[in-house]
Amino acid sequence: MYSILLTDDEQIMIDSLTFIIEKNFAGEASVYSCLSGSQALEIVAREQIDIIFMDINMPGLNGLETLKYIVQSKPDTVIIILSAFDQFQYAQEAVNLGAYKYLTKPVNRNTVTETVRGAMALVDKKRGRKSDEVELHKKLDLVSPMVESDFIYSAAFSGGKDVSEYFSYFGIHDSVWCFCCLEIPRLDTKNQYDIYAKIRSTLTAKCRCIIGSFMLNRIVVFLSFSRRKDEKQVEAEINSLYRLLCINISSGIRAGVSNLESDITRTNASYSRALETLNYVDAAGGICFAGKDTPHSDPRNEAGILAEKIFGRVRAGDAGALSPLVGAYCAALEAKYGGNMDKVKNALFELLVNVRNITSEIDESYENEAFSNAFAVLSSEQDMAHIRDFVQLRCGECATDIMQVSSRQDNPIIERAVAFINEHLAENISLEDTAQEVNVSPFYLSKLFKEEKNENYISYLTDQRMQKAQTLLRNPRASIKEVSAAVGYNDQNYFSRIFRNKFGMTPTEFRDAAKK
Q1: For residue 453, what are the CA distances in angstroms to 410, 450, 463?
Q2: Which of 38, 174, 369, 458 has its CA 20 to 30 A from that of 340?
Q3: Exposed, middle or buried: residue 433 (CB in 10 Å: 0-12, 13-18, 19+)?
């Protein structure tokens, strides 16, 4: 039995290929299908796929980009490229990726049948070369990056119950471990894969680790060590790894490292600690270890340092990093002023004034009525948790506005495309739909997004949906399901996961904070 994956953004193409394969290879093949590169990665991570038909020109992650990830993790997969373009550069890159065939659309039935038969013969040949011993030997060395990313997500957000099988799979026994959150400067879609590959090759050559995928410009690494090593030895090893990354990638990398752990149920807490520690790293780069480099001995110094960190994250438009920073700042103020609420409130009001001024410097048109009432709110509120949430929301709103301002471009095509996206966020709008609206080819529009927005079309669309979701969630009468549908997600669970990845809290947690 052979597993065949059909990846094309045109359903009619998938239906045609499925019909041909099932008619000519009944009982010999299991057919899977998907409409995008990201869905293909999920299927390849979940299923043992032998043969892949991959369209080159798809929205979001295109066919060639998708295959780079697949070839790295599943090198024995037989690849058949589909393209409406008979262009040399596509064919050349397909050959470089080790493609078995390069087929130009439309493809006739005989060509498909012949190609599938040849691919099956090649799969048989590759299977014959493998032995159980080689497979066991490669299990940890060549483990799929998609599986590693799934582990990181489960460990960060699900806790010990859902990661025990991963610990067994990766052979993490009798070890101590920690999370390291890396923030890479000057990262964009053009260099993201190359930097991921460099991080992977640098770390796996020197230590035992599991590496997640990029979330914006951050990537999470799980590091495990023998129990025979003490804390100082582990810290020295991590410092050495950090220096290597700076040499191979960039001197401005920021890294936050959690405490060493051995309890499998603490993966979520350990991940959160790494993110929190990252906030203490200087904006120019560096590494901090939880409990060692985080300022806590002198509350007077700590409050000032945290305020500067908050200002830096607001200027960077990083709303997701503000929640732990504002919480730590409020705690530092309470310690500094011995619980004197009046002094704490004055310091928080001063913080909000500075945040508002930073935003106005970057966006002269910025207006937010909540800032006009800030002094009255702080004066009347006595619950410190409510005060903290109020300050956090105001800082987050400013960071979000700065992020949006920094992404604005003068290109009229991009401006029209952005307007179309904002008007149709609740709909399933593809790159082709938007390209048709602005009268350019999908390929050219995709290129413009990467050049002028420093991200691909799908990433930009997702960011806009998340920003609108924040606005809608402030209306207590709208259910989470309604908000999810209003920003284009029919699967509420998937929407919640994307929201948490973006802002560091679930939609429900965000709504509760907004109410307070």
Answers
A1: 11, 6, 12
A2: 369
A3: middle
Q: Is 238 exposed, middle or buried, given 0-12, 13-18 or 19+ CB atoms closer than 10 A? A: buried
Instruction: Provide the pLDDT for residue 248.
Output: 80
Q: Cβ(295)–Cβ(301) under 8 Å?
A: yes
Range list of H helices, 407-489 = 412-423, 431-437, 442-452, 457-473, 480-486
CA-to-CA distance for 471 and 486, rounded, in angstroms? 11
Compute CA 142 distance to the chain's CA centroid, rounded to the nearest angstrom: 22
| Residue 263 DSSP code | -
In degrees and rounded to multiples of 5, residue 68 shows phi and psi of -60, -45
444 vs 447: CA distance, rounded Å: 5
Q: Give residue 388's pLDDT.
A: 92
Compute φ and ψ for 289, nearest 5 degrees: -110, 135
**Residue range 306-347, pLDDT digits in tens:** 888 888 888 877 787 788 889 889 988 988 888 889 889 989
Provide the CA 210 distance to its chain's centre, in angstroms.
16
Are 99 and 81 contacting, i.e. CB atoms less than 8 angstroms apart?
Answer: yes
Low-confidence ranges of the chain (pLDDT < 70): 85-95, 128-146, 157-162, 189, 293-301, 406-411, 454, 516
- DSSP one-letter code for 160: G
Block residue for tokens 């009619």 = 12
pLDDT of residue 87: 56
CA max distance for the chain: 82
pLDDT in tens, 16-39: 899 899 888 988 899 999 988 888
Burial 387-419 (b: 16+ CB within 10 A, else e): bbbbbbbbbbbbbbbbbeeebeeeeebbeebbe
- Among 283, 313, 477, which residue's Cα sits nearest to residue 392? 313
How many helices, marked H, and strands, marked E, lie in the chain? 24, 10
Output phi, psi for 411, to 5 deg: -60, 120
